[in-house]
Amino acid sequence: MQQQQVRQFVERYLATFSAHIVESHPDYFTVKLPVEVDKDIGNRPFYWSWVDKMNLAYQPLVLTFTFHPDCMPECLRSEHLHLGAARMQQIFASTKKHGSFVCMYEQQGGLLGNAGKRRSTPLVPWLGMNLKVSLLCDKRRDILLYLGINLHQPRMVADFTSFLFSLSLTPTIPDYYYTLDRKVTIQEALQMVQLEVEHTLEQEDQQWAEEARTRLREEMAILEAYYEELARREPQDEQTNADETEDEAEQPVAQSSLGQEAQQTEPDPAGTASVEQPISFDEYRASGGRILDFLRANGIQTTPREEINQEEWKKSTPDEERQRRKDELAWQYEPRIEVSFINGGLFYLSSVPPLMRSSKAKSMRHLPASGRIM
Prior knowledge:
This protein has helices at 3-16, 35-41, 45-54, 86-99, 160-165, 186-203, 207-265, 281-286, 291-297, 318-333; strands at 20-24, 28-32, 62-66, 79-80, 101-106, 121-136, 140-150, 155-158, 169-170, 177-179, 336-349. With 374 residues, it is α/β, with parallel strands linked by helices. α7 (207-265) packs antiparallel against α10 (318-333).
């Protein structure tokens, strides 16, 4: 998406909400945001909660967007809009929020009859759906489907979105037009869409799934070999840890006996500490003493440590770690298919889109409807 395309998209987005363009320049434009746009991209949630609660008048937010970083206006505070900008992502989210489903009518020049009078024109209902079929494993490939379903007579066409771009559409029904009844329900149309998606997947090469399962088996074999080697080394590590534990247990006993002998041979007749503490904290710190020892020597109590619940901090066993790693590998490499709904709409058209290819779904008029695939 080039910068010129970014600007065209933003201008179309603002024109949809009838935003007031204060100033337009080849490198930037200044816009006064409407209420809906301000709530979505203005980053003023506390302001809007205060305005709505106090029922105050709305003060519009004025922003300047630039599309070339080297051509920033000097006298205006501007914001550079590009594909990765945070504000641009907010615009995309707002577009998806308000424009995920629309209802539009085709508008053409008035058709005149033999008597020279304008005659009414029927509009056929079409359900347009843009879907994304994702083939997922440790790699990803997306297939975009632009489907159109005739709701008056069972028929499906591909690349329906491109056909809509060539038409003049309006959100309100024009004069001298009337709509035909829908003989195909939405659930039946979804059934047709599901069959079309399945037909598309049948035509795809399934080699990607076999290669993903092969990589999964290789990773599982490496994982099993690692934990088998870890299990062989575990008895040796346990013996070494046991020896170290015995040595550490003997060492405090020896130190305790030496300390008792030192106390018996060198008693303090004055009954005071053998090491004199410095008078001030600065002198004690200058002599290399620790702050904690100074606090204890001067009778300042330290905060006791809180008891830690050791049951919540149990170390995972090798079998638990192995199973968790297996689940991660299965999630990463196991081939799967996801179908997501991008956007769509209900379109009433007088023009007839071309049937680009035959579809198995076009003749499934009387089949029972299934659940949604989005």
